[in-house]
Structure formats: C-alpha cells, structure tokens
Amino acid sequence: QVQLVESGGGLVQAGGSLRLSCAASGRTFSTYNMGWFRQAPGKEREFVAGISWSGGNTDYTDSVKGRFTISRDNDKNTVYLQMNSLKPGDTAVYFCAASIRRYNGGIYYNRREYNYWGQGTQVTVSS
C-alpha cells in the first residue's frame, strides 16, 4: 500500500514553468513504476509522463515532449514533473499514480494499469 500526495500546482502565465512533486508514503516506493496524468474539465484523464522504478525508462505524451521532464528521487520517496513553456492547453488537474505491474519496461499509458492515485493538484495556465 502507498499513499501519494501531489503539490506544486498553481496559476502561471503562458510560457512559464512549474514543478510538481508527488510524495509517497511507505518503504517500497522504489519498487513502483510511476506516472503523471491530467484531467481537464469535461475530458478524460490522460497520460502525461511515466517513469520506471529505477528511473531508467521515461516516456511522454507527444504534446508535452520537449517541455516536460519526469524524474524521481527514491531516497526521498518523491517523483517530480518539471513543466516548462506551459500553454493554456496544459490547464488541468494533475495526478500522480503508482503501478505494481512488471512489464513494458515500467511505462504504462492506461490509467487502469495503475494501482494507487493521489488526490491531484490544479495547474492553470493563463494566456
């Protein structure tokens, strides 16, 4: 069992940056593959970025490639999402998620492949 708490969201102008953090409880954080998802009003929750348990594998949805970076610090039980060059289309509630699955190099694009979720943090990008 792991509990996830996101932080770092807020209001930022287009072109600005934010860094989201997701702190995990428990001593087994380093065994979880992690992901960031987002959900805009009236839309489905979508994959943003994923990182394997070791940090060796990462992937991103096309719309954020080159702008967002996912990373993790297993000593601090924390996963991060650095978001640069933000656009109004990035406005959403951002969720981190943990998966116990062991395939595909630790990267999962479907929200059903994740076992634990945080409560989310709001990111609003103004034009």
Properties at a glance:
mainly beta; 127 residues; 11 strands; four-stranded antiparallel sheet; globular
Taking the sheet with the most strands, its summary is: 7 strands, mixed
Helix segment tally: 0
Distance between the termini: 40 Å
Radius of gyration from the alpha-carbon trace, in angstroms: 13 Å
Q: Quick one: how many beta strands?
A: 11
Order of helices and strands: EEEEEEEEEEE
Proportion of beta-strand residues: over 45%
Shape: globular
Structural class determined from secondary elements: mainly beta
Describe this entry's structure for a reader.
It is a single chain. With 127 residues, the chain is mostly beta strands. Helices cover 0% and strands 46% of the residues. The chain has no helices and 11 strands. The protein has strands at residues 4-7, 10-13, 18-24, 33-39, 46-51, 58-60, 68-73, 78-83, 92-99, 116-117, 121-126. Strands 2, 4, 5, 6, 9, 10 and 11 form a 7-stranded mixed beta sheet that branches. A 4-stranded antiparallel beta sheet has the order 1-3-8-7, with no helix packed on it. It is globular.
